[in-house]
Amino acid sequence: MDEVGMDLTGRLMADMDPRLLEFLKTKVDSFVKWDLIRFFHENPYTTDTAANIARYAGRSPEKIRDDLSDLAESGVLEKSQLRDMTVYSLTADPEIRQLLERFVEASADRQFRVKAIYHIIRGTTR
Amino acid sequence: MKRLKTGIPGLDEMLQGGLVPETAILVEGAPGTGKTTLGMQYIYHGIVAHDEPGLILTFEEFPEQYYRDAQSFGWDFRQLERENQLRVVMSSPEVTKASLEEVGGRIEQHIREINAKRILVDSLSHFERIAERPAALRQTAYGFINSLKREGLTAILTRESTALLGDPEGSDGDFGFLADGYLMLRYVEFDSAVHKALLVLKMRGSDHDKGIRQFEITSRGIEVHAPFEGREGILSGSPTRMVDSFVEAFVHR
Question: Which of B81, B89, B98 sits opposite A83 (nearest CB)?
């Protein structure tokens, strides 16, 4: 990314709520993660395996497995072992749940969405 | 005896006041007959009228679908979840079964956290996918129903029947056997219209109305009306007027 690009990003993100910007930077660096975050926000008491979550989200298990793991590592999801199954569910942490709610609500705004999409594309093309 | 009222006009009278505590009631019917609505109404009424929090376990239907459907009856499930009175939990049957068998598993946590008294399991049909043989299915269902009772829950379990009208093919007697109560919802055709019928087939430890009653899904939920009168063969899906049967039997001979 050249300096002009960096400046544009900086300018684009300047008026974004710093907590949401931080959430975006540290937790949402792919469109699959964005999808998964929205899915768990809309269905907050879902607990299931990667294969079943992939089916619910209309993705292939291979495509979401790493993203689920990353979201668990960053504290958005909880990963646990149930016999021979690895299952994922939304964190019970009220602070993260609240942040997630704000992120999903903000995503309804076109301007926020454009900025967030730009941030993800920029991240994936680095 | 204490009863858990369903809040469904007409049904509680049929059940002599409501469901017997810590029992599991099977509600079977074709798609669209109102099984889920009946279960949601039972859960909602428990929360708002009796301070009995509820849990909904779903295996395929997304929780957001329940929030939407409930909203169409004026029941704000999202708000009840925020108030810790309700949880709509989605997991596959495998995960649900393993979780219930685990001491302190996630479902047990949900039950304890909201002090749930009522549960809707929607639907048991999905358990058929994880059991290879009928005997294994019976064992799985038996263990599952017992684990709900162990937690002190009074359950409504739905099950889909495939036939839209008449005798449901593939209706499995096993679930009916294992459950304490058995409610059948049926489509019935007469006078060039499809109506809905409800029958309480079994209610262990309690008397119940044996009539086949007509019911409607209104903007307030399910309402059960008076028994069908002057018709027979209702469960066949195409009842005849009794007077026609009489003429057929005696006059046309």
Answer: B98
Q: Do A48 and B98 touch (CB under 8 A)?
A: no
- State which residue of chain A sits closest to B106, comparing Cα positions: A47
Q: Record the tokens describing residue B245, joined without a space.
A: 């049967």
Collapsing DSSP states into helix, strand and coil, what is residue B91?
A: coil
The model carries a pTM of 0.87
Is there a contact between B8 and B35 (Cβ–Cβ < 8 Å)? no
Least Cα separation, residue A46 to chain B (angstroms):
5
Which of A45, A52, A89 lies closest to B88 in CB terms?
Answer: A45
A47/B89 CB distance under 8 A: yes
User: Please, are residues A23 and A99 in contact by the beta-carbon 8 Å criterion?
Assistant: yes
Predicted ipTM beyond 0.90: no
| Adjacent-strand bridge partners of A58 | none
Q: CA quadruple A108, A109, A115, A121: dihedral positive or negative?
A: positive
Query: Which residue in the block uniquely carries the two structure tokens 């779903």?
Result: B58
HSE (side-chain half, CA atoms, 13 Å) at B124: 31
Distance CA B222, CA B184 (A): 14
Say if the Cβ atoms of B81 and A44 lie within 8 Å.
Answer: yes
The partner residue sitting opposite B63, judged by closest CB among A43, A48, A89, is A43
| Torsion sign across C-alpha atoms B137, B139, B144, B146 | positive
pLDDT tens sequence for chain A (126 residues) = 444 455 566 666 667 888 888 888 888 989 999 999 999 999 999 999 999 999 998 899 998 999 999 999 999 999 999 999 999 999 999 999 999 999 999 999 888 888 888 888 877 655
How far apart are alpha carbons B131 and B64 in whole angstroms? 28
CA-nearest residue of chain B to A48?
A: B91
What pLDDT digit, counting tens, does each position of B20-71 carry? 999 999 999 999 999 999 999 999 999 999 999 999 999 989 999 999 999 9
Contact A82 B64 (CB under 8 A): no
Q: Which two tokens stand for residue B99?
A: 């979780």
Candidates B58, B60, B90: best to mutate against A (most CBs of A within 10 A) is: B90
